[in-house]
Amino acid sequence: MRKPAYYLPFLGWTVVILTACFIHPSQLPDLSFEFIFGPDKLFHFGLFGIQSLTLIWAFYHNKVKQIWLAPLLCSLMGIGVEFVQGFLLIYRSFDYADMLANTIGAFGFWGIWTMRMRF
């Protein structure tokens, strides 16, 4: 039997991500030291890693066998967010490094889940 309530953390976290990614930068804290793997990239890594984990958790409890779809879907969302930021929002910019951080976060947390389930 499907349990849709297990998807609520995923949906809630998705709202958090979309809010954080589409809010005007003036409303965000100033990250004055920026380099390729600075605080912004760690933020992207964590946001999409946790999103992937919440979807994996929902899939696990709903007996969805294709758990690997969770990080894939979260990565695609992360890539889509970057395109929206780059081409539809004048106050945001497109960044390949953010896409990479989103994808590594989503698949990294999936890897941790997979290793946890094996032991």
Can you describe this structure?
- With 119 residues, the protein is an all-alpha fold.
- The chain has one domain.
- It is built from four helices and no strands.
- It has helices at residues 8-22, 39-61, 69-87, 96-118.
- Helix 2 crosses helix 3, helix 2 (39-61) crosses helix 4 and helix 3 runs antiparallel to helix 4 (96-118).
- The longest helix is centred in the middle third of the chain and has 23 residues, at 39-61.
- The chain is globular, with a radius of gyration of 15 Å.
- The model has no long low-confidence stretch (mean pLDDT 89).
CA-based shape = globular
Contiguous helical run count? 4
Question: What is the alpha-carbon Rg in Å?
Answer: 15 Å
Count of all domains: 1
- Judged by helices, strands and strand pairing, the structural class is mainly alpha
Total count of strands: 0
Overall mean pLDDT: 89
Give the proportion of residues in helices: 55-70%
Oligomer: single chain
| End-to-end separation | 27 Å
- Taken in chain order, the helices and strands follow as HHHH
Largest sheet: number of strands, sense, barrel closure = none
